[in-house]
Amino acid sequence: MAQAEKTQPEVQKEDSMWKQKEMIARNYRDLAASRETGRKIVSTFVPGNLNELFMCFDMISNTPETNALRNGMMKKSGAMIMEAERHGHSEDVCTYVKADLGMMMKGNLGPTGDPLPMADLLMLSYTGCFTFMKWFELVRDEFGGEAVMLHVPYQADGEITQNMRDYVVKQIKEDVIPACERISGIKFDIDRLRQYMAQSAKAEDDLVWVLETAKNKPSPIDSYFGGVYYIGPIFTAFRGTEGATDYYSTLRQEVKARLDAGQGPITPDGELTEEKYRLVVEGPPNWTSFREFWKMFYEEGAVVVASSYTKVGGVYEDGFRHDPVNPIESLADYCLGCYTNLNLPARADMLAKYINDYEADGLLINSIKSCNSFSAGQLLLLREVEAQTGKPGAFIESDLVDPRYFSAANLKNRLESYFQMINQKRMAA
Ligand code: SF4
Fold first, then answer.
1. 210 lines ligand 1 (CB under 6 A)
2. C-alpha span between 425 and 423 (Å, rounded)
3. Where does the pLDDT of residue 285 fall: very low under 50, low under 70, confident under 90, or very high at 90 and above?
4. How many CB atoms within 10 Å of residue 123?
5. Is 58 left (phi over 0), alpha (psi -120 to 50) or beta?
6. Which residue from 59, 72, 77 is spatially nearest to 120, judged by alpha carbons?
7. For residue 370, how many other CB atoms are within 10 A of its CB?
8. Nearest 5 degrees, angle CA 354-CA 48-CA 80?
9. How far apart are CA 365 and CA 280, in angstroms?
10. Which of 33, 191, 241, 386 has the highest count of CB atoms within 10 angstroms of its CB?
């Protein structure tokens, strides 16, 4: 990587961040070169992605949500959303979808500027969000590609039954694997899958270790703004690769060093030296003004010690690991257990547990205007978590990648009021 990039003054980047940056850049280069190399592209969603399986067919993974959020961080998503709206997509549609469609309509250059060839396989792992289905239906109808659906039953009763597992396993064996074999021309080898699963499990151990360091005071990490970087490789095209395992091992060493030194998280303006508030956050961050949003927290000494967003691509803290011994069953369990596939009571219990286990001051919900799947019920969630923990909650609203829905003054006001409320509660106690 260019030395000039390394010396940018505004952000402190650790080795793990450089490793991740290089992995992402390589993946976009591989996608761009796929027509020459003959490798097939699979587009799939972050929750319920079967990355280890696709690697058995030398496929290159492309996750549309991460393209959208990267375009959002680079301030490119606004024009893409407008383009999709000009083609008739309503203002209320999920802005990840509009950013993705708009990107394709404008020539399909990815976030790094490399061309993104259309996917050969649209692998629709349906984990809790109806929009996923409509999204790939639109992509298939407008831009082509073969769609294969993996229907993952919703955890309506808060548990995974053997029937549910069998149903997903059957689809992986009878629909997903044959489609991958046909499209890639490569025969499935279960031993190859086992090797990738073993790599995933190592990386997952390290990720859990890193996220749980936030139980310390001060926390050496921010589990939301920093957390979005920590989950990057495992939630996208790299789970199961040696590169991802190496990334998490490096990250663990870096976080351990900060923990041993009693240091706080690293922010874009350097280390946070005084931890005043410990929060649990529900909902994704705003991407178009990510730095500005983060600053509203660290300037006040607020650290996010746990977040649901770092679980949307897999919940590992309760012990689930990708299992090389029963690889296909474990892929099914992975899909069934994603945060997006949990019902409201399970989510409330999880957030309340975070507040207790991480000794947080309360729950903050960043409700996403255009995410109809997860914004519904969030006020109920807030009240339930407040009732379970006795800690005050707060509700703010923004959007994922639509810059029109980020009101900095409004958000800052609400956050400041929330911090005052926490102070009052402390004084009263
Ligand atoms: S979960 Fe929300 S943000 Fe994600 S695809 Fe569904 S509607 Fe969009």
1. no
2. 5
3. very high
4. 26
5. left
6. 59
7. 21
8. 95
9. 8
10. 241
CA dist 269 and 133 (Å) reads 40
Find the 371 Cα to ligand 1 centroid distance in Å.
5
- Give the distance from CA 125 to its chain's centroid: 15
Residue 372 Cβ < 6 Å to ligand 1: yes
Q: Does pTM top 0.90 for this prediction? A: yes
CA distances from 303 to 180, 224, 225 (A): 43, 9, 9
The pick from 43, 92, 95, 96 for probing ligand 1's pocket by mutation, whose C-beta has the most ligand atoms within 8 angstroms, reads 96
Per-residue pLDDT band for 151 (boundaries 50, 70, 90) equals very high
Q: What is the pLDDT of residues 237-271, one digit of tens each?
A: 999 999 999 999 999 999 999 999 999 999 999 99
Average pLDDT of the chain to the nearest whole number: 95
- Residue 301 clears pLDDT 70, i.e. is over it: yes
Instruction: Give the helix ranges, DSSP H, for 153-214.
Output: 162-171, 177-184, 190-212
